[in-house]
Amino acid sequence: MNAPTPSTSHYPAAPTAQRAETHTLSVLVDNEPGVLARVIGLFSGRGYNIESLTVSETEHQKHLSLITVVTTGTPMVIEQIKNQLDRLVPVHRVVDMTLNGNAIERELAMVKVRGKGEHRVEALRLADAFRARVIDASTESFVFEITGKSDKIDQFVELMLPLGLVEVSRTGIVAIARGPEGM
Amino acid sequence: MTREMTGAEMVIEALADQGVKHIFGYPGGAVLPIYDAIFAQKKVQHVLVRHEQGAVHAAEGYARSTGKVGCVLVTSGPGATNAVTGLTDALMDSIPIVCITGQVPTHLIGNDAFQECDTVGITRPCTKHNYLVKSIADLPRVLHEAFHIAASGRPGPVVVDIPKDIQFAKGIYSKPKDFPHSGYRPKLKGDINKIKQAIDLMAHAKRPLFYTGGGVVNSGQAASDLLRELVKLTGYPITSTLMGLGAFPSADKQWLGMLGMHGTLEANMAMHDCDVMICIGARFDDRITGRLDAFSPGSKKIHVDIDPSSINKNVKADVPIIGDCAHVLEDMVRLWRTSAHHPDKKALGEWWKQIDRWRARKSLAYRPSNDKIKPQYAIQRLYELTKDRDTYITTEVGQHQMWAAQFYGFQEPRRWMTSGGLGTMGYGLPASVGVQMAHPKSLVIDIAGEASVLMTMQEISTAVQYRLPVKIFILNNQYMGMVRQWQELLHGGRYSESYSEALPDFVKLAEAYHAHGIRCEKPGDLDHAIKEMIGVDKPVLFDCVVDPAENCFPMIPSGRAHNEMLLGDAAEKLEDAITEEGKVMV
Questions:
Q1: How far A15 CA sits from the closest chain B CA (Å)?
Q2: In the structure, what pLDDT confidence band is assigned to residue B585 with cuts at 50, 70 and 90?
Q3: Least crowded by CB within 10 Å, which of A58, B233, B273, B346?
């Protein structure tokens, strides 16, 4: 039917774009030097996306860390990412929190806002509505702490913008499955 | 044995405990304590190469021809960076290698010290795993872990980077009993339900095909034996990738030849038209599949691989089976024998008839010549004159490599050493050194191109030093032949930088290295010259001057499907074998 145009490349043509999905992966790893570099290097080396990445030691005695990574790709690419991660020697488990469908995802942000008068009052009022806490204050500024889903934080930050937003620091997403079972 | 020793001594002790007989290396400042330890013992023989890349390729040849782990010892900085090409090659082709690198003392790491480089950082993406040992207490465990990781699961290279102060430090050496990484447990046995599903699919196939790869060779002799048994039991046709040659004997009538870009017409057409594909230990590489959306459109695909990331990477598998080839094949053979279903004889007969029609096209045919040596003819004569001997073949990369794969018949696994995944020019000569070290009495031939062999030519010096009578059979066409072929077929005949203007006189070069040189320019002299080469008990550089214009066919042009092959002008024509676009390209 449609003959492909003759290619002079060594390699097959790039596949046509497929629908990309966003997945949150929990990766349990040995807390040893270089383990994060292995994970990040895998993503950059194989051309995968990192939307968000958090990492911290979770079990000190067993030297285990949990990496939560949010990535996008076609279902085939997501499967590749999980298999490639699982292949790394210090990786214990890879769990696709999105695929399991019952995960809770949260993010923490600290938001600095500078302003006086009506702006200042409005910022405080909105913070209250979003259940953000004031963790630092001066006569002309606040630092709010807010936790929640990423889109809630996005929304809060957007509202702070005209009220004197100075800067935002976000943790990236952490996730855990609902119910009694561990990963 | 548990006793106190230095880190350098631990390295040798661990190698000996692992049964290592040879290590390929090159000394330097940051590994001198280990060279002291080598000096003081006789258990592990060191082979001095001429360049660290050669050390890794030699270890690869050693590993692939024996099934053991190949070992390398190099110094810090340039020693480690020179080894990177070899490590990447071993990663791509799944070759078990343990490479020990020296490092500057721990207190100087990060200081831009002399001959310092971030070895673990540089080698992270080109190894299966790597270590920087910062405490003497970790060293014995790490050394043994390195061997375990290199050899188990899908094999690969492992780097152990040891700072000089750790080599001097004293500690207690003991061989650890367990392996602490609970996340690393390669799965050997395949899921029996999936295997049953595969057997059911195979039994109902009308146009089945085995497509096997290097995984069968890596899995060991048992895997090749079981593959042969299963292929015989089923009566199905079989093709293999470049890496899998020898797992099934090429002399067998069920063998269709290699598949892929330069595979036979019958193998590629059978791949395209089959209804059940049984892929064992191969990874659907782009040189195999051609255009992905037109790859074997009508088939159900069974995919057996020990590496889960190989499955569904390029091609969706209908029946994925994660496991070691030998283990899965054993289950397959057993289940096939007890299966109630029997293949459809009539359909199978039709399938074989179709395959015979493709075979009759003689896709490997070439026009013989009386005055120029055709490279295909040279390989055919080499095969005829060496096939009854205990022969190992290595290659460089390019046209000669493809001709070797097409025209040299491999009957046994581990007899064929070539750089498949990375395509490393300069692989073959050092690899032949490693093979000959492991098999001192065998005939080891590097089928080479004149451009490739010049990349690691210095290793002929290693061969001379250790009296390794490797035969370097150079198909000399004065071009980077495969580059020239692509330029001719796909880049409008613009032979940009693919002609070597100033080649050395290979006979004189051989003499300069204290090796033996032979030149052959006429087809009539070839047999005599090859016999002379075999008879010389020294390294030989054989300069086989071949037709410079010969192209390697068949060829699946880039971006094309299996049923869109280009054939050489000597093959039987199919009217529409070359499309209008194809003609433009030719």
A1: 8
A2: very low
A3: B346
